[in-house]
Amino acid sequence: MTRLFISNARIVDPASRMDAIGGVLIENGFIAEIGAKAKAPAGVETIDASGKTLIPGLVDMRVVIGEPGAEHKETLKSAGRAAAAGGVTTMVVMPDTDPVIDDVSLVDFIKRRGEARAGVRVLPSAALTKHLDGEQMTEIGLLSEAGAVLFSNGSRPIVDSRVLRRALSYSSAFGALIAHRPEDPCLARGGVAHESALAARMGLAGIPAAAEYIFAERDCALAEITGGRLLLDMISAARTLDPIRRAKAAGVKVHASVGIHHLTLNELELNDYRTFAKFSPPLRSEDDRQALIAGLRDGVIDVVVSGHDPRPPEEKRLPFDEAAFGASALETLLPALLSLHHGEDVPLMDLIAAVTSRPAEILGLPQGRLAVGAPADMVLLDLDAPFKFDAETMLSKCKNSPFDGRLMQGRVTRTIVGGATVFSH
Amino acid sequence: MPKPSGSTQGDATLAPAVVRHRHLLSIDDLTRFEAEALIARAETFIPLVEGRAKKKTDTLRGRTLINLFFENSTRTQSSFELAGKRMGADVVNMSVKSSSVAKGETLMDTAATLNAMAPDLLVVRHGASGAARLLARKVDCSVINAGDGTHEHPTQALLDALTIKRALGRVEGLTVAICGDVLHSRVARSNVRLLSLLGANVRLIAPPTLLPAGVHDWGAEVFTSMKDGLPGADVVMMLRIQLERMQGGFVPSQREFFWFYGLDAEKLALTGRQTLVMHPGPMNRGVEIDSAVADDKAVSLIERQVRMGVALRMAVLEALAAHASNEGVDQ
Fold first, then answer.
1. Which of A129, A142, A169 sits opposite B209 (nearest CB)?
2. Is the pLDDT of residue B7 over 60?
């Protein structure tokens, strides 16, 4: 029996709303005891976590990997190392690879490959439509049985409302979760930045907030008439919160996620045409960002994701119009999130919930909480430790981070997956 | 009072069933009493269709039956033809290829033409819901709906009820699970109405994409998985699903449909009891039903349904031919 005891930690567990000094006993990969009264049995290896904070391992619901098809950007192995360093112990990997994950055998491939190489837990998502073409739904039942935890069309929204309606309807028989990026591609076409006075002044083509909230309205309506489970994936605009709030109040099975960059950065990052701040959806106004934070606090937004999207220099060091969207983000998710605690007074418990217990609950996972019987996935961190983030130190194959050179606070000192330490600093 | 055209000797089943309506367009045209009378009358024809008695009667001698089929059908058309001929009617088969243009007009023109031939009974199948009703308004004879679009197929439901009654002795109180493409099925719509009318507990099992809007108000229990819907079923009635519906529009693929909604021995065992299997035909083997189940004489009523079809249609033709309006008496 392998055992490990962590003592004197400040345990912050959103699922049980626990915030107390105590210990955790890990036995064979699961939590055997936890709390102020937990004591180390004689002879058990003990880590003294005095001054450290212990939280559940992060569950990141949106990670783009280059495997299969673009291994030069990221592999399950390199992403796994980056995740461990960032305190992410479970990552849901997106299906927009090459080939697209739209077949049972490919879901199986990702599962096996993840288990063998990633070090952290890898959960495959599957394409919602065949080849992501937005026309024919995939084998949602068989793919669910094979282990796909959600269905997504990646960053290609479904234009044909009837296709999305049927997918939401069909998936309800299996309780499957549909993650959909609400963005009208016709309104967003050619856009590279939030449509605003600033983008106009810079000569950048805009992506209007309406592209998002129009589709969000539609998607919520479809979830309502079908009874399907919908996750609005990576919302960015203040007005998008309205249909979600209304749908939730009406009992519609709608969830929403927000990318870490949209919670912590705004369109001003585009100054100097910094392509590392080019995102899809785009970084929006400060008002939007404040609304997203409020949405997170009042529960309209359920989940925060890294939106990890590694891009090599040849895709980013280009004129703004030509550069790729996205950032490598597994390693900065937690410190960036903690900046809202340190700098903007968002309760720590709410922030941690959005990356642990809430995604776990939506996905129906046993992890994401610190409780007896739960998998021993956890993160020890030095909550207040300041550091200057240097993108060159990133473990991800791509080091395109908008946080490069930024002062951050809150450092992962140890990451544990199933009782085994996969990262320590 | 309609004049019975057969001899009466006290036993109700020896006389044609009596129906109020001149046409049979929907199960809604029938009361429970009428439906039961048709089924009881059909039972008396069974020895005849099974070759255990003289194969013909002359009840419909001198009557003209026109089979007007705008959609291809082997079994329904020949079933009506045989039913008519066994009762001595003159049967004319007209297969009209549905033209994509001006369907309504074609139908009305055809109706006028046929009416001029003064038939007594007109059996019609058409790809458009409501076509039989439209025709019924334009002709002077009885119209029998042999399937209109995704609306109804009343004689199929009646023959299914007859089949169940012959196999299990009753319909009332039985649990019948109807599975598959409910959305596009006229057989399902007629069966839900009729079997409910006759006191059966009807269940519908289908993927949510193949359930019509408002299905929860049909009076049947609705399920989206076989595991939930099959336990306790006395009869499982499988519906035909068209192959083009399983290419990602309504259902992702054939193999997924079969895996979750196709009837094989394993799923049949979910009922937890001796359960009989029905299918209106034609079957897609390996898609909605496994051959091992379809061909298992111990559980499959599929062949028997075809035989019952002729007897049931004889009873329907006879009842409508005996209807007052067809006997030269004002309604």
1. A169
2. no
pLDDT of residue B54: 79
| Chain A residues near residue B251 by CB distance under 8 angstroms | 170
Of A136, A172, A173, the CB nearest to B248: A136
Confidence of residue A345 (pLDDT cuts 50, 70, 90): confident
Contact A170 B250 (CB under 8 A): yes
Coarse DSSP helix, strand, coil percentages of chain A, rounded to the nearest 5 percent: 35, 25, 40
How far apart, in whole angstroms, are the C-alpha atoms of residue A120 and residue B252?
A: 32
d(C-alpha B313, C-alpha B320), whole Å: 10
Residue type, position B28, single letter: D
Contact A226 B208 (CB under 8 A): yes
Q: What is the mean pLDDT of residues B295-301?
A: 95
Task: Write b or e for each residue in B206-236: b if 16 or more Cβ atoms lie within 10 A of its Cβ, otherwise e.
Answer: bbbbbbbeebeebebebbbbbeebbeebbbb
Q: Measured between CB atoms, does B224 come within 8 Å of chain A?
A: yes
Joined tokens for residue B80: 């009506």
> Residue B208 and residue A135: Cβ atoms within 8 Å?
no
Q: Which of A5-14, A321-330, B63-72, B108-117 has the lowest mean pLDDT?
A: B108-117
- Count CB atoms within 10 A of the CB of residue A60: 30
Q: What is the pLDDT of residue B98?
A: 52
The DSSP bridge pattern shows strands A18-27 and A30-35 to be: antiparallel
CB contact under 8 Å between A170 and B251, yes or no, is yes
Q: Identify the closest residue of chain A to B254 by CA–CA distance.
A: A139
Distance CA A276, CA A328 (A): 9
Task: Compute the CA torsion angle A408, A409, A410, A413 (nearest 10 deg).
Answer: 70
ipTM at complex level: 0.87
- Element of type H or E holding A353: helix A348-353
- Pairing outcome for strands A46-48 and A53-56: unpaired
Cross-chain Cβ contact B252/A137 below 8 Å: yes
Cross-strand bridge partners of residue A22 = A9
Helices (H), B23-102: 32-49, 75-86
**CB contacts, 8 Å: B259 with chain A:** 141-142
| Cβ-defined contact of B252 to A138 (cutoff 8 Å) | yes
B:250-289 residues touching chain A, CB 8 A cutoff: 250-253, 255-256, 259-260
pLDDT tens string A254-278: 999 999 999 999 999 998 999 999 9
Identify which of B96, B157, B161 has the alpha carbon closest to the alpha carbon of residue B122.
B96
- Statement: residue B106 has pLDDT above 90: no
Give B331 or A354, the one with higher predicted confidence: A354
- SS3 state at B145: strand
Could you say which residues from 109 to 148 on chain A have a Cβ atom under 8 Å away from some Cβ of chain B?
A: 129-130, 135-142
